[in-house]
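thought: user wants a sequence for this fold. calling inverse folding tool.
action: design(structure=
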């Protein structure tokens, strides 16, 4: 049963989940930061977790959107939106954009990454050219 679920799940779905997990993590952290030390929980403020979420989101995004571009639709929009969204995520996460605007910039970045995955899914489903034609042409 598990293998059927994994077969139906696309990399874009995983990427959307990773982006949403990152956005929720970043949105809830400021709210929970006062309560967590009382509970003895420090996992949400762990830099390694944040780096891991960013790396996972970037890796899945590159795989899903790259595959969508090469094998299916040949449209740059999802790749450009992903690049812009991820740049905003990095800018907000590493404090390049300023402390006050950090949550807003992180939210906009996560929304951009999620939107890129959704657009990639739509473009892949709309593509009428079979996969083998793209590969035969050397694309």
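)
observation: tool returned 139 residues.
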């Amino acid at each position: 049963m598990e293998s059927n679920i994994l077969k139906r799940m696309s990399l874009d779905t995983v990427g959307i989940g990773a982006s949403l997990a990152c956005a929720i993590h970043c949105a809830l952290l400021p709210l929970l930061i006062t309560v967590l030390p009382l509970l003895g929980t420090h996992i949400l403020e762990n830099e390694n977790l944040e780096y891991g979420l960013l790396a996972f989101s970037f890796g899945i995004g590159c795989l899903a959107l790259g595959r969508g571009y090469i094998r299916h639709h040949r449209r740059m929009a999802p790749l450009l939106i992903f690049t812009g969204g991820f740049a905003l995520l990095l800018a907000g996460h590493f404090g390049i954009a300023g402390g006050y605007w950090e949550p807003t910039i992180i939210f906009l970045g996560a929304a951009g990454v999620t939107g890129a995955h959704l657009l990639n899914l739509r473009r892949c489903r709309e593509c009428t050219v079979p996969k083998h034609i793209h590969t035969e042409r050397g694309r």
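thought: summarizing for user.
answer: Here is the designed sequence. The helical segments are 2-8, 11-32, 36-39, 47-73, 77-93, 102-126, 131-136.
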